[in-house]
Amino acid sequence: MNLSKKTFIPANHNIAINKCTKLCTVSSAILIAISAPSYADLEPYTLFDGRMEVGFLALQGFQAIQADDGAFRPEDEEQEPNFQRLRVNLQLKFNITDNIRADVDIAEEPNDFGNNGDRDFAFHQDFGGIEFELLGLLGSGSDNSDLTLRVGNIGAAPFQFKGFQDGADNQGNALIGNSPVDFATAENGIQLSYTKSALSGPVESWNVAGHITGSSFGEQFQEDRGFNLRLQGTLNFAGGFKAGLNVFQSDQGDQLSFGANGVAGLDGVTTTNYRFGDGENYNFSSSGSSSRETHVGASPGLDMTIVQFNLAYQPSKNTSLIAMIGRAEDDFAFADDAGNIQAGNVFLDAGGNRQEGANVIEAQSAVDYFVLEAQQYIMPNKLFVAGRYTNSSNDTDGISGEDTLERIQLGAGFWINERTLWKAEFVDQDEEANSGGQVGGGFDGFITEISTRF
To answer: Taking the model in full, what pTM does it have?
Structure first.
């Protein structure tokens, strides 16, 4: 199992956060998901007597997607079907000692690094870090306890138990797109995770993890820049049932400088990376491939809090379900130059021109959301179908009426062999005027991709 930001393993990586899902009804959001295909746990290729593990991933996609009427960029309403850029990842893991490991993911990934007019075809460090299994280092290790400190890039998302697609790393995701409320990212920092397994009774294992990171995948040292915090707990029950709770908190608001009208500009301000989520494999002709425009963009990501509850259930190896419910809010909201609150970071001005939010005021921006996903193998280890439904509502101060964003994804996957997967998906996203959606009316279409790994 790789340690890239796509896997989002909140605990130690010896305990696979896998494929399940179950329905849940709690206050503000629900996600049901059927997750990862059956070949997710293939043994890696090893070199140097097991000291080094090597993985190579490649993916080619084709899309026929266009924006609905009323798009913020009208040119997106008429797009031609065509091939996407190739995605490639080289993943290396180093077993330095029995208790010290390191990993790095080198990627040519348009989702994250497709800037510079999409002319940047260089490979980048997409994810990497060093892990110390502390109990083993202290001479008190055991088979059912693990205390791991990770330094370097920390992958984080409030969801658990489901796959995630990032560039060529897609075979743990039953569908092709992610979710418009995935809030996933990777940043620099440290993470401490403790797992206790092989317990008696209804609980088979439990985990608690916490991290502290900066709000950048690079380096930012400006005055008043804070840290991002996460606390996550997981319970794995007998019978394929799992439950988890995530709390995220960013502290970036002290960077703001407010004018006499109560408006602060975002120029030069660092915001938390998870405010939009990671790049997806849907593309529009008027924006770069690294755009996050398919996500909800209600909050600026300054003093941002996310609370999300996750449930998962896998009644058999061929059926998986996940349920998630959450709320993301910020102490600040996007505003125009006069201080009028906007529904999100993209809006139309009085002249009908597309604008991106460059200002904020002190007011609460918030999104309540739920997502439902499911996967069923029709032919075990060969052919599956999957679906996901996402619903979010914009609860920002002063925003009311027509505030819902919905996405429906229906897909199928066929394993050509144990390392090669073909997937296809229909997607339809509907964005109401005050939803915080960044495309405009939404978008729909068809996307397919083939991927392989070793």
So the answer is: 0.89
